[in-house]
Amino acid sequence: MLRRRVITVLTFVDGVLFRTKLFEPDYRYTLNFVDAWSVDEIVVLDVTRNPQADRAAFHGVVQNFARNCFVPLAAGGGIRDLGHVRRYLDLGADKVVVNTGALERPELITEVARAHGSQCCVVSIDAKRTGEGCYEVCSTFGGTQTGQDPGAWAREAVDRGAGEIMITAIEHDGALSGYDLELCRRVADAVPVPVLICGGAGNWKHFLSGFEDGGADAVCTTNIYHFTETSIQSAKAFLAKNGVPVRVSQ
After folding, report:
1. 135 - beta bridge partners?
2. What one-character DSSP code corresponds to residue 246?
3. CA atoms within 13 A on the CB side of 126
4. Percent of the chain scoring above 70 in pLDDT
5. Closest CA to 193 of 154, 240, 137, 249
6. How many CA atoms lie within 13 A of 234 on its CB side?
7. Pairing assessment for the beta strands 73-76 and 41-46 based on DSSP bridges
8. Residues near 39 by Cβ (< 8 Å), separated by ≥ 6?
């Protein structure tokens, strides 16, 4: 039986760790996140808005995580070509996360998959609800409407070589009120690869709903459990007690 994953997503602005709300930096953390914990993977994302910004500080973040964490590491932010991909992999990332760059040039997905394997390519999809039962993919930190349906874009991404899809409901980001389960289910039903649900988790029951009702293969948290090992272990114990096959530390 495949294990379900609990993933921590960390967002950085100019190399500094921030919590986000509605895709805007909301709270700057003053503690250093060190992974020696029970999360199954870590995703680090550079959400610096200035496209001309020097990413050296974030590159240092990726390198530091790669040296000190013992779980798979995915990195993303500003990826537009294979040179950017190779840079993250050279720094120690196991996977890359592509979003706006793939929407601007979908061939990027195929290039990454051919060069490094589908398992290396995570396509991140940010979506807004536009009406009852309707969603639209947005790019550039949720600020640009694309006219694309999330399920259709996810299918195209997988057809082009994506190995995983990470789906985030923009309105749920930082709300701590639960995931958008309808959105996740639509994407999960549309593709044969693992789907990561992100945006909105505020308690352990939200994780359970993400798996059971959203159809996710992995649940992501961006705002909770960052610094407390006990809570991560407890969340996994809760999931295991409710029949979700997760990796629980002994």
Report:
1. 129
2. B
3. 22
4. 89
5. 154
6. 9
7. parallel
8. 6, 7, 8, 71, 232
Structure tokens, 38:
């029970």
As given in the structure block, the two tokens for residue 25 are: 């930096």
Residue in the block written with tokens 């060069």: 115
Domain ranges of the chain: 5-241
Tokens in use for 157? 């991404």
Burial 134-171 (b: 16+ CB within 10 A, else e): ebbbbbebbeeebebbbbebbbbbbebbbbbbbbbbbb
CB 215 within 8 A of CB 195: yes
Q: In this predicted model, what pLDDT tens digit does every residue of 149-188 receive, in sequence order?
A: 999 999 999 999 999 999 999 999 888 899 999 999 999 9
Q: Which fold has domain 5-241?
A: TIM Barrel (3.20.20)
The residue among 145, 94, 140, 144 whose CA lies nearest residue 120 is: 94
Stated pTM of the model: 0.92
Residue identified by tokens 């259709």 is 152
Q: Token digits for 88? A: 């993250």
Hey, which residues does 21 pair with through a beta bridge? 24
Helix (H) or strand (E) holding 46, with range, is strand 41-46
What is residue 146's DSSP assignment?
-
Token reading at 79: 């990826």
Closest by CA to 158, choosing from 132, 184, 122, 128, is 122
